[in-house]
Known about the structure:
The chain is α/β, with parallel strands linked by helices and 404 residues long.
Amino acid sequence: xxxxxxxxxxxxxxxxxVVQKFETPIFCYSQKRIKENIKKFKESFKSFSPIICFSTKxxxxxxxxxxxxxxxxxxxVVSKGELMIALKAGVNPKKIVxxxxxxxxxxLLYAIDKNILLINCESRSEILVVEAIxxxxxxKVDIGIRLNPNTDAKTLKQISTGKKxxxxxxxxxxxxEVSKYIKNSKFLNxxxxxxxxGSQILDHKPYQKMLNVLxxxxxxxxxxxEYIDLGGGMGIDYNKDNKKxxxxxxxxxxxxxxxxxxxxxIFEPGRSIIGDSGILISKIIYIKESSKKDFVIMDAAMNDFxxxxxxxxxxxxxxxxxxxxxxxxxxxFVGPICETTDKFLTTNKxxxxxxxxxxxxxxxxxxxxxxxxxxxxxxxxxxxxIKGSKINVIKKRQKLEDLI
Length: 404
Ligand code: LLP
């Protein structure tokens, strides 16, 4: 993704062509970038070749899931819907793990019928429901237990999941109790210890702490888990300030852990696979002047891309067509929705923009389209996947008729 003759280009496709052909806002992905990210991820951990289950919640577009599956990944799902779409994409059930604190009985029944790799249970009650289903089907079901390691991931508090005050996982004491129960069950196989401490983690140290907790627990339990599922969470460089997650370090500390605890590692990455492979193209409807700054009112809004409104996340905004003329005023890039949080970014320095210009919100591949909504009865944008110079429509823009 780069500028060619001052026009932003994805692979061999000029975005000028895209906006001539399609309505905005529109999500646009690069197949090549997805492939490169998967290759890098696999290479980073090739010394222990983990099972990599793509976190479906980060991007649940069927065609994207097919691309990811074609590159050898499995899926991490958190609902019946995600499990259904992963299977429809052709993901091997033996590469699917099911996470979540509130799986219903019907969701668990469906997952057990599909013989997926693991159901990662998050409470004593859930384990009993899985056991009851397994008993009724005269089956032995493979499960994992998600530990709450009480580890601070040092990320945004809204996306931290590993501290004791968070709803996720089971604390150490109860973990040991339920493990004993499972070991004596005729219908449950305890195969996995799972954790996931949060998302957009840029420092490897929280992972080191988490691994120390696992190490101690395994020693205490004197039990050999076939799988250790370390979840996802590896962050990406949204601000291009070179604060990158150190995959090499993470690989090293896992290798150290594996020397003491032999097991197959499972990962559940979302953002690190898909985050920087997607952009959102938007058109400027109006530019409204104000005393200190100008409001750039775009046709994309918080319903299309929630991260800034929901977490205060900052995503770079760049022009589709680069010019040399700069503005001396600050811009507030906002959407048309009647909420003050419907704002993407404030910039101090930007090229002078005009109404009907196009701009690009960067790195929206993860938790972009999957978090979008129909708030204000706004149809969800179309999605396209660029492969070389080919544009493939992978989701049509919703029609108002379907919403009304
Ligand atoms: N595994 C589990 C159990 C998870 O809950 C998550 C994300 C992942 C894996 C994938 O994490 P990743 O590698 O993508 O960081 N909407 C928020 C992020 C929420 C993450 C929820 N869980 C955002 O836009 O930042």
